[in-house]
Model the fold of this input.
Amino acid sequence: YTSVGSGDWKTQDHYALLGLGHLRFQATDEDIKRAYKKMVLKYHPDKKSSTETTDMDRAKLDAHFNCIKKAYELLSVPDKRRLYDSVDDVDDTVPPPTKDLQEFFRVFGSAFARNAKWFDTKEKVPLLGDDNMSADDLQALYNFWYNTPTWREFGYFDEEDPNSAESREEKRWIEKNNKAARRRKKKEENARMMRLIDNAYSCDPRIKRMKEQEKKAKQDKKKQREQELRQEEERKAAAIKAEADAKAAAAAAVLEEEKAKADHARKVRKTFVKMCRRHGVCEDKEDGAADGGAAPVSRDTVDMLKTTLALPRLEELSLLDAPGLLSGVQAELEAIRLKKEEEAAMNRPWTKAEQKALEDAMRTVARDAADRWDQIAAKAGRSRKECIARAKECAAKVKQQKEAEGN
Done:
């Protein structure tokens, strides 16, 4: 039999007294109730007759039954049971880091299994597992153990019972000291758990592999990025070179085209001069009469024509026979003469009489007349083109005067 004694009930094995030593913290509330009923039927003093037991045996039986009642009173109340489970059958040793693969899983696997009971969660507590655990499960394992608080409490072995205080002040003082001791032990427990997890994390071969893989992945990603940057730079350089080459080729093509045009122009002009000399149109003398007809032109005049006339016209003239070529040259010279006279006329100042005749004609000739400007030119004594240009010039001057007066 186990006796409560005077104040030593805290040291008794409550689970063993109810026959639950094999289950301990894993025993359900129903297990505890069923076990207590069984022990009551077996050890209740009323179940033993006076003839079966001596006074000494009856005293031991009563003491043992009191221990059973105390065990049930404690284990049937969740808060009290939690205090007891926090100190019952515990192994708080923290294995040191190890480099041995098999030793790591054996030692730390056992340590994690022992300490898994301190987590109050509806989900299954992840254990250390084996070397084949996936990276996601491994991260989930350490995230859980690092970030999930434990329920373990340290009030079972309070040094003093507040209910034994003789005054209210003494009771508050005892409660204050007990709370401080519990906080200190809880802090030590948290540090112990962190030390356990840190030791496991620091030598976990799976973590080492994962870090190496992450490092390699980062390096590969960096190399790939550097390669992409190099390829991008090469692409840009190639594009710039291609653009420069295209521009150079285009410029060369333009130069070649211009050179071809210049060569063609020189050839056409040279041919024109050659044909003029061959057909006797061009002579090395001043323009004058030739024997028997049209007067040939001087070499200087032919040189002037070869630079003045358009290339198609020079080619057209070069294909003519002698009379046609001479006639064409003289026609071009006449056109040039007329153009010069027209330009000279355009530049000739308008007299007051011409200006007045222009203004009178513009007022008298109907605006809707089809040959209005021809009639105006006839009355003003100037060409149609001169009259139109002069009318525009006068209109612009009038507009400027009105704008100046308005400002």
Q: What stands out?
A: Strands lie at 282-283, 297-298. The CA atoms of residues 160 and 177 lie 9 Å apart.
